[in-house]
Amino acid sequence: xxxxxxxxxxxxxxxxxxxxxxxxxxxxxxxxxxxxxxxxxxxxxxxxxxxxxxxxxxxxxxxxxxxxxxxxxxxxxxxxxxxxxxxxxxxxxxxxxxxxxxxxxxxxxxxxxxxxxxxxxxxxxxxxxxxxxxxxxxxxxxxxxxxxxxxxxxxxxxxxxxxxxxxxxxxxxxxxxxxxxxxxxxxxxxxxxxxxxxxxxxxxxxxxxxxxxxxxxxxxxxxxxxxxxxxxxxxxxxxxxxxxxxxxxxxxxxxxxxxxxxxxxxxxxxxxxxxxxxxxxxxxxxxxxxxxxxxxxxxxxxxxxxxxxxxxxxxxxxxxxxxxxxxxxxxxxxxxxxxxxxxxxxxxxxxxxxxxxxxxxxxxxxxxxxxxxxxxxxxxxxxxxxxxxxxxxxxxxxxxxxxxxxxxxxxxxxxxxxxxxxxxxxxxxxxxxxxxx
Length: 437
Description:
Belongs to the NhaC Na(+)/H(+) (TC 2.A.35) antiporter family. This protein is 74% helix and 0% strand.
């Protein structure tokens, strides 16, 4: 479509249809996870194909084309590849005994009472080092699931801990795409944004650790006496080491798959044919997730073409009258964009130019604006059940992503800390901002 997009509130209704389906099904069944996610999104996509942009009438073929272009976005296809490779790696690590060996090693080394906060801190460290929540979730979800099963803990709760730690690094890391997008959009240095960001979210991380210290981790004395086959831990060490070295997530997953396959062949866990079958099995676990990602991309394409995103941006910024109002409007904008696109980087890139314009108009510090863009987008990204993070963790465990959301305590806490930051105008900077190099 070559014509300018006219803002249109009805353009947002496809994603609202999905939310309505989830809520209605949850109320009727007393189970918020009852609605099959892929089915819900397919219904929302079908509803989206019934709509039209303002003052235009598109053919079904044209709307399908828009949907396909959105679903075939390069970022969506990359996400599909990540999901499939993550499934292959997970299946291999189970079949060669890598997951069980890593769990036993962790339980032997970490004090029983500290196992859950230690898992959160480890996830924070890895995600901060590698700059991607998806890579962290891929590497540590299998370990988290193994810990949960060994200790008799709630699998959704432990995955909520993994997702929480992953979002810590997604928000703060110097190499995170959200950090880069936020700082570039506001023209500030990475270090300046980090200083503004860490002062807001560090209390949330500390509170999360304290909460986890009060969760009863049960007893696992029988595991402490098990011998650990260190060779089987090697694939996880390799994938974590490659991630910390800053390698591309595809390369990281490839190294993990290769190392797990070679380990399994070396220790006789499977034959070459069984190895290939294991890889196929893991990828099949991720097929629904891949289809969900493509469907979401298509729905976002339709909402953009129908003017839903444009209307949202205009509605959230038209009544700004003060610096605090500008910051709150920017936070609301990037939050709603993340809810509608299920992609925090896209949300930041979309909201960034408006944030910069409002910041200049109301003299808001761009370092704070970059921080707020990242905090609020990562907060909702770590809670939405149709976001890549929860979808991936849920697919690995074979559970509904809606079951994980209530345990994503850190994303919830940084949302509260972000609102307090706006309310009190903290942190403040005494030195004027310098342009990023």
